[in-house]
Automatic annotation (TrEMBL):
Family: Belongs to the gemin-2 family.
Subunit record text: Part of the core SMN complex.
Leader peptide range in chain numbering: none
Name of the molecule in the record: Gem-associated protein 2
GO cellular component, as recorded: SMN complex; spliceosomal complex
InterPro entries on file: GEMIN2 (IPR017364), Gemin2/Brr1 (IPR035426)
Keywords of the record: Cytoplasm, mRNA processing, mRNA splicing
Lineage: superkingdom: Eukaryota
GO term, biological process aspect, one: spliceosomal snRNP assembly
Cellular compartment(s): Cytoplasm
Any Pfam family: SIP1
Role played: The SMN complex catalyzes the assembly of small nuclear ribonucleoproteins (snRNPs), the building blocks of the spliceosome, and thereby plays an important role in the splicing of cellular pre-mRNAs.
């Protein structure tokens, strides 16, 4: 293919370099020869001399997204622990996938639960639905019946709501952690760019919470380590992985 592109499109014969370029060409062949002569005089690479003094300063400071914050030595998970969690998570995903296939093929009976769930456009409603609220008793645990009610775009959207919400918190509440884990279990691969960005935000947020973990309990640290591990090692965002 490269050799074909290197062949000349026109056969112009021998080129007289002493051709008087100030006179108009007398034929089409002579015009092509003039083009070839002019092209030979051009440099292969041209670098512009840019005067940066004329550039205005940016009005918005844009900070590039960094990876996860390194865990304090006494809080980081071992590699064996991470590999075990990935294996366990993979087995759970396989089991849930088999259940869904059996329901769709009518091999397993399933009845849609009678639960009033928020509209998929109701971000605040979903955050309230998935969060602890002892006064109003509105929090619903993520059971398989509820998860199976959601199609994949809804799973992605709710996960995005919850990840954006925990970015404003100092820790991940137990109920929110349950929902995030359940949504990750049914999250389909390959990931869309938006969902990949969402998962990376989840891992970064968990790493920041972990680095500031003066008031967190052991099980809360474990949940943060787990989400970082799953995002990095199961969903293949390996640059975010703990060593």
């Amino acid at each position: 293919m490269t050799d074909y592109l290197a062949k000349p499109a026109f056969v112009v014969g021998e080129i007289d370099e002493d051709l008087n370029l100030s006179l108009p060409p007398t034929s089409g062949e002579e015009y092509i020869k003039r083009v070839v002569i002019e092209a030979q005089k051009c440099a292969d690479i041209v670098v512009a001399d840019i005067d940066r003094k004329h550039f205005g300063k940016p009005t918005i400071d844009v900070e590039p997204l960094s990876g996860c914050m390194e865990a304090p030595p006494w809080l980081g998970p071992s590699l064996d622990w991470q590999l075990y969690q990935v294996s366990d998570f993979s087995n759970i995903r396989l089991y849930i996938s088999q259940l869904k296939n059996e329901i769709q093929s009518l091999k397993r009976k399933w009845k849609r639960p009678k639960i009033d769930m928020p509209s998929i456009d109701d971000e605040k409603g979903w955050i309230k639905f998935c969060s602890s609220n002892d006064k109003e008793k509105t929090r619903i645990a993520p059971t398989l019946d509820i998860i199976f009610c959601l199609n994949h775009p809804e799973v992605e959207q709710i996960l995005e709501y919850l990840v954006e919400h925990i970015e404003t918190l100092e820790k991940i509440e137990y109920e929110l952690g349950q929902w995030i884990y359940a949504l990750l279990v049914v999250l389909q691969m390959p990931l869309t760019p938006d969902t990949c960005s969402c998962l990376r935000s989840l891992a970064r947020t968990c790493s920041i919470m972990r680095a500031k973990s003066k008031k967190l309990e052991i099980h809360e640290i474990g949940a943060l380590n787990l989400f970082i591990c799953l995002v990095a090692r199961y969903f293949r965002q390996l640059d975010l992985a703990d060593p």
